[in-house]
Amino acid sequence: MRLFVGIDFPPELRQCLALLCAGLPGARWVEPENLHLTLAFIGETDDETARALDVELGRLRAPAFDVTLTGVNVFGAGGRKPRSLWVGVEACEALVLLQGRVEAAMVRAGLAPEGRKFTPHVTLARLKDAPTGRLAEYLSGNGLFRLGPIAIGDVVLFESVLGRAGAHYTALARYPLAG
Ligand code: 2AM
User: Fold this and answer.
1) Interval 31-48: pLDDT, tens
2) Probe ligand 1: pick from 41, 69, 111, 158, max atoms within 8 Å of CB?
3) Whose CA is nearest to atom 22 of ligand 1?
4) Is pTM beyond 0.90 here?
């Protein structure tokens, strides 16, 4: 099983985000139903570890909170070869706290923590040779994008199934945050 832990959004909010998924050549857009915020990528996992992770995530205690999505940006070698396009998240201590607790749950389940700095984001597209000028236009044209506050009431354990048309994400379990 290929797993990750994240946050999903209600369909109407995914539809708002999906409005950003157009107008850039070289972008392979994420399907609206797949739009999510990754807290921790786990990767290929055996059943026993997956069960241990489920138990530990079930023990996770963290408060529910609101997030606001804001702005658009790219990841990739110093901006010269951008490889993914994403929507950012306004600074949110509760989200950082939650991500730390998810990593702690992973470690208790016998998994290695991610190790890299958490940059909360919602990936909109993978980029392949997006023309520099068009990308700059896209980023400045959507720079004021803002969506929220969005109430986050649970954390989701997702399975990622890789198919020919790309990955499809299925929610395997939900862990409620404290009201
Ligand atoms: P990304 O969207 O920011 O690229 C499921 O694959 C999720 O896990 C993706 O949203 C992806 O984040 C994240 N992820 C993190 N590291 C990954 C990796 N090495 N391979 C695939 N996905 C990864």
Assistant:
1) 999 999 999 999 999 999
2) 41
3) 41
4) yes
Is the shortest distance between the CB of 160 and ligand 1 below 6 Å?
yes
β-sheet bridge partners, residue 66: 151
Domains of the chain: 2-174 (3.90.1140.10)
* Protein residue with least CA distance to atom 18, ligand 1: 41
Q: Give catalytic residue positions.
A: 36, 121
User: Which of 164, 122, 160 is CA-nearest to residue 172?
Assistant: 160
Long-range contact list for 128-131, CB < 8 A, 24+ apart? Answer: 128/26, 128/28, 129/26, 130/24, 130/25, 130/26, 130/27, 130/82, 130/85, 131/25, 131/26
pLDDT tens digits for range 3-30: 999 999 999 999 999 999 999 999 999 9
Cβ of 73 closer than 6 Å to ligand 1, yes or no, is: no
Q: In sequence order, which residues have a C-beta less than 8 Å from that of residue 47 and are 6 or more positions away?
A: 1
